[in-house]
Amino acid sequence: MIERELDIATQDGAMNTYTVRPDDGGPLPVVVMLMDAPGVREGLREICRRISQSGYFVLLPNLYYRSTREFVCGPTRNHPDGEANLKRMFGLMETLSNARVAADTGAVLDVLPTLPDAKAGKVGLVGYCMSGAFVTAAAAKHPDRIGCFASYYGTRLITDKPDSPHLMLGDITAEGYYAFAEHDTYVPLSDVAKFEKLLAAAPFPSRVETEAGTHHGYAFSDRGNLHEAAREKHYERMLALYRRHLS
């Protein structure tokens, strides 16, 4: 694998971005991963590499670049620094918004024609946790450039704010895939059912699945809730989506 770091210019500064591609071939279809709240870390790079092995050029921007070029949330469970680590993470989360991340995604899309590893054409997105909302917003903001997107245990998909992702579903044209955990205090099954009904009425093709026996973060190797079978299925569904729309 060929791994590089690059800075992508946005209206707010330089967004440092991890990239990975296979050793040979190219230019390649593009996948953009939008990080979850704990930040760009090895657990996410691991997923990027796995996607890239199937023939994709993958970019993982640091969405916290306005505040810091490096952030990885420290331990939170049964740790003396757990409360402080969570406080810092939630503080960084509050610096983001659906509009900001949609604009950042647009900056990534704008730079792709200048990157020799990037094949021309529509792009795939994937997001986890807080970025379930972000990939939805980005797909709505850039319908002419997003070919498909996947969201895993996405949070804040239905809120009482005017920028709630569920209010943007009518602007999406790309195929979307949403997967949720059966046991998730952030996204209870009642919320999943509400969102599924809204998707059924939306104009774009979509699929929703809830993974039995899983907890929030089940696809991550580093967050304490890894479920091997669900993790493999998450790759299967995601890569099938990309093959349909990007290859």
Structure summarized in a few sentences:
Helix content is 32%, strand content 24%. It has helices at residues 42-52, 82-93, 98-111, 130-141, 189-200, 228-245; strands at residues 2-10, 13-21, 30-34, 57-61, 123-128, 146-152, 175-183, 206-215.
Description:
This protein has 247 residues and is α/β, with parallel strands linked by helices. It has one domain: Rossmann fold. Helix content is 32%, strand content 24%. The chain has 6 helices and 8 strands. The chain has helices spanning 42-52, 82-93, 98-111, 130-141, 189-200, 228-245; strands at residues 2-10, 13-21, 30-34, 57-61, 123-128, 146-152, 175-183, 206-215. The chain has an 8-stranded mixed beta sheet, sandwiched between helices. Strand 3, helix 1 (42-52) and strand 4 form a beta-alpha-beta unit. Helix 3 crosses helix 4. The model has no long low-confidence stretch (mean pLDDT 93). InterPro entries: AB_hydrolase_fold, Dienelactn_hydro, Dienelactone_hydrolase-like. Residues 15-245 form the Dienelactone hydrolase domain. One of its GO terms (molecular function) is hydrolase activity.
Gap between N and C termini, in Å? 19 Å
CATH class: Alpha Beta
Indicate the overall shape: globular
Order of helices and strands: EEEHEHHEHEEHEH
What topology, given as strand order, has the largest sheet? 1-2-4-3-5-6-7-8
Structural class: alpha/beta
How would you characterize the largest beta sheet?
Answer: 8 strands, mixed
Reported by name, the CATH topology is Rossmann fold
Helix content: 25-40%
Number of helices: 6
Q: Count of DSSP E strands?
A: 8
Strand content: 15-25%
Q: What is the number of independent domains? A: 1
Protein name: Dienelactone hydrolase family protein
GO molecular function, one term: hydrolase activity
Organism: Reyranella aquatilis
Keywords: Hydrolase
